[in-house]
């Protein structure tokens, strides 16, 4: 049952829609899957081979018990590996998203005015669902290729330059309203008397921290599962005395 529970929970984490979408941002984020697959393997081994343990106990077959115990040892090694890798990956994730400015680079260089683009789709989903804007903050869009395209288009249409820096509709708190209308929000207030005031219509938090917290939450769940499984295997509680005479 424990193995089945572990396998089921971790499989759910693997198939989670939002996780699969965010992993498409960059191959570095896919290292998260290593942690998932290690824990999945441990759960699958225990779930599959626990039947051998039951049969061996009922039929008093030593070789079946030996196989089962060997699998338990392998599963324990995998859970320890998952725990250690998970602890290391948390720091690696922070370095990838924050120190390496991964999202900032994607937004500046790969976010474009093309709704069919994979990066555009994932970034829009991320900003809307995690309630954030840009990598470090919304100002990342001021230096992006996307903003230059939008501003150039508006200048040609209006004949005047925009005073406010645009951000995508996915940065807007009322996403559907702006998605159906202009498909952009303004970074600053349109009030001429206070045009340097940050707009209250957009999320002011950058996505680096929010995405890190999203993955960090799942990593903590996985390493907690690994830790609990290891403790259960080492716990003397399931023991019901010396069974030596029963098998001899």
Automatic annotation (TrEMBL):
UniProt membrane topology term: Multi-pass membrane protein
Chief location: membrane
Listed transmembrane segments: 32-56, 63-88
SUPFAM superfamilies on file: Tetraspanin
Pfam families, sorted: Tetraspanin (PF00335)
Keyword vocabulary terms for this entry: Membrane, Transmembrane, Transmembrane helix
Listed InterPro entries: Tetraspanin/Peripherin, Tetraspanin_animals, Tetraspanin_EC2_sf
Cellular compartment(s): Membrane
A GO cellular component entry from the record: plasma membrane
UniProt similarity note: Belongs to the tetraspanin (TM4SF) family.
Protein name: Tetraspanin
Source organism of the structure: Candidula unifasciata
Source lineage: Eukaryota, Metazoa, Spiralia, Lophotrochozoa, Mollusca
